[in-house]
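FORM 7B: Structural annotation worksheet

SECTION A. Query
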Amino acid sequence: MSQGSIYRAPFRYNQPADVGATSFSTPSTLNSPLPIRYSTAEILGITCAYPVSTALQPRKPSNASLSQSSTSSASSKRPIEVVDLLSSDDEDDEPITPKRVRTSGPAVAPTLYATPALQSHTSQPSVARFHAIEVPIKRPYAVVPKTPAAIAQRQQFEKNLRELKGPKVSVVNEFDESSPSIDFYFVQESILGPGVEHVTEDFMVGCDCYKENGRNIGCEYLYCECLEDSQLNDDGKRVYPYGAGRKDFRCLRNFYLESRNHIYECNKNCNCEDNCKNRNVQHGRKVELEIFKTENRGWGLRCPVALRKGDFIDTYRGEIITVEESDKRGDKRSPDEANYFMSLDKFCEPESIAKTEFIKEFPERVEEYIQKIATGESSTDMKDGEEMWENPDYIPYKYVCDGMYMGSPTRFMNHSCDPNCRLFTVSYNHSDKDLYDIAFFTLEALPAGTELTFDYKDEDDRTVITDEQARQVQKSKGYMPQKCLCGTADCRRYFFN
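SECTION B. Predicted structure
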């Protein structure tokens, strides 16, 4: 086998499940001090319905299986455990079926990520049954910086990473010895710039739920003040955004995942305790992350563990500045320069709306507005072929999060027109409509090593932007829209900045 080849083995879930986890020897090119565990699902590039759990530890191989293993010296061969994970206590789970991996770039063969343990972060207990198959694999080659400047930059960036609390965040480059910019540093919380302040906590209202309700059945089934501003679900009820079952503990529920509803979590004035199931984002990141160099889209972000649908990744952080300050910074930055502004505009209303929408929403004000247009007091504009009128309910947003020079690992997430993550806004103080957290959750179950992506436009419109439209924008605004490189079937081809 050449070093660059990947062999595919048949998917054999019907094999006997009492073999245990067996160690196999691999060529000496896989030189590493630690063994690596790969699930068959990861090797074959498919997703299992049941995630790999930290509680699922393989049994030691029997003497018979040990006698069948390679007798070559440890200096030339390296043990790798290849295991299939089948849970014996999940009779109610969906059948395990192969699923095509969603990618944010051109279709390529699945890459095997050499991480010490490809495991899910979920800690729910389970009993696992294993069987093993021997599959030759390729270990990705991580380029180690060698020049003094590259070594210094990598060391400084890794030092910056260590400032983060919680599970490990690492950096990997499989193409060259470069590292992300050391001008960027990581912060645990967003920094408030001049002119930015929270609403006083004197107006922060907490719930009076019993402690055991928040911890167990959830006071959503009784009454919780923290759900007062939440959206109603299909049954006309207000429920907590997160699941509390064994399989979906702390996962964002489908009712939220399929919408863009704002999330209200319990706060420090609530009667419930820290283990209330309506406290999730406020406890911070709970999964390992890896910043890695992509082939054609700069740096990206992936997770070395399997993720469930609805898992919380991390928040988007940076310097919170006023809209006026963001305009000044935007004027100084080149149109070709990466833009890390995130507007905190969840509760704002647009300055203008379509004429048809205006007539529907404000029929009693149509004549008045026509008079204002005639006298020049108001004006109209055109957008996407529709006449736009001024919105009587216009509410401007105040703040912008600038992640250019400070922030979190999510700053390295790339765009995809068909993403596997989505951002949601999260509040703890119902009275503060201008400042809140921006949190990322997975839209589907993801195998370990999958790149995490989200839609920079955060909208469902999938209209393709043609080259001619892009050139028209260049003529009218003086810059060429950014070319999209996500490579998905739903790619819009360009960004309109």
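SECTION C. Observations
The first strand starts at residue 23 and ends at 26. The chain is about 15% helix and 15% strand.

SECTION D. Sign-off
Analyst initials: ____
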